[in-house]
Design brief:
A hairpin with a 4-residue loop joins strand 1 (about 75-80) and strand 2. This protein has a four-stranded antiparallel β-sheet. It contains five helices and four strands. By secondary structure, it is an alpha+beta fold. It has helices at about 1-25, 55-70, 95-110, 115-125, 165-175, and strands spanning about 75-80, 85-90, 145-150, 150-160. The protein has a domain at about 55-175: Beta-Lactamase.
Length: about 180
């Protein structure tokens, strides 16, 4: 009986090791070459003057108006380019966990100067799990940098729905206020 257990354990260990080795052989189809040296820095927008309260509140109001129109109770956070909270709102009925998530999405988008969907795609589509080891990263849609005059002034984060819903509300707010 002990021999069967040992044999099963050895077989399982061998299959696990083979699976790990196979998974490491090939990058996913369409994955960018991480060893390629790009001619320009990606997402290299300079930081400008931080977003002011009036514009931050206008973004939150625009996002809430779109969420109300669609019937999606959400949480909204606007941060300056350093990731410091400038404006926040939680709609009635929005999930409590999304308070911190909305702030996290906004903070990540501002500090890394890119939409959080870039991290989601890196992990989900290309298997770049190392992205999850970077400080203050959230690999979930719904965080968008705010650009004014070609400079980052902050970011907005939305949370409470699916990633696609969160991202749609952020985009609606940016289109309404920043364009």
């Amino acid at each position: 009986m002990k021999f069967r257990g040992f044999t099963a354990l050895a077989l399982a260990t061998g299959l696990f090791a083979a699976g790990v080795a196979y998974a490491q052989q090939q990058p996913p189809a369409g994955a960018p070459d991480l060893n390629a040296i790009a001619p320009q820095m990606p997402f290299n927008l300079p930081f400008g003057a931080p977003i002011n309260l009036e514009k931050a509140q206008a973004l939150v109001q625009a996002a809430m108006a779109e969420a109300n129109k669609r019937g999606w109770p959400e949480d909204f956070a606007v941060v300056d380019w350093g990731g410091n909270l400038v404006a926040f709102a939680r709609m009635d009925g929005a999930q409590l966990a999304s308070i911190a998530i909305a702030e996290h999405k906004a903070r990540t988008a501002a500090r890394y100067r890119r939409p959080t969907v870039a991290f989601e795609n890196g992990v989900q589509k290309f298997g770049f799990n190392y992205l999850l080891t970077l400080d203050d990263v959230i690999a979930s849609r719904g965080g968008i940098p705010l650009v004014d005059g070609g400079k980052i002034i902050g970011a907005i984060g939305c949370s409470g729905g699916t990633g696609a819903q969160d991202e749609a509300l952020c985009k609606a707010a940016v289109d309404a206020v920043m364009k």
